[in-house]
Amino acid sequence: MSETLPPCPECASEYTYEMGALLVCPECAHEWSPVASDEAASESTEIKDAVGNVLADGDTVTVIKDLKVKGSATAIKVGTKVRNIRLVNGVGDHDIDCKVDGFGPMQLKSSVVKKV
């Protein structure tokens, strides 16, 4: 079989297989329609911030709420500027890859930032 199937959208497993009209992941048991995933991929190219502005690579954003950071005693405070963001398909709904001053590299959700 020369056709390659897309990885699982839930756990990114490469061992997906077809079961009738659906694609199935044997690792997390997620089932999805390949047609729906193609439509979602084309719609998800536009990432928007908390107020609806379209984000792009290299933008500067401001954090709009305090964010707890695992493994750190301090939190990222409201108003923290994050420069030179990169849009990615991250873990869960974390779609911004960046470096936060004082915390280092991390991924953020677009719903907790506002474009400057």
Reported for the largest beta sheet, the result is:
3 strands, antiparallel
* Oligomeric form: single chain
| Average pLDDT number | 87
Rg on CA atoms, Å: 17 Å
Instruction: Please give the alpha-carbon distance between the first and last residues.
Output: 49 Å
H/E series, N to C?
EEEHEEEEEEEE
Domain Protein YjdM N-terminal: 4-33
Pfam families: YjdM, Zn_Ribbon_YjdM
Organism: Arthrobacter bambusae
Family: Belongs to the YjdM family.
Describe the structure in your own words.
The chain has 116 residues and is mainly beta. It is 9% helix and 30% strand. It is built from one helix and eleven strands. It has one helix at residues 34-43, and strands at residues 17-19, 22-24, 31-32, 61-63, 67-68, 75-76, 81-82, 86-87, 94-100, 104-109, 113-115. The chain has a three-stranded antiparallel sheet with strand order 1-2-3. The longest helix has 10 residues, at 34-43. The radius of gyration is 17 Å and the shape is elongated. 15% of the residues are buried. The mean pLDDT is 87.
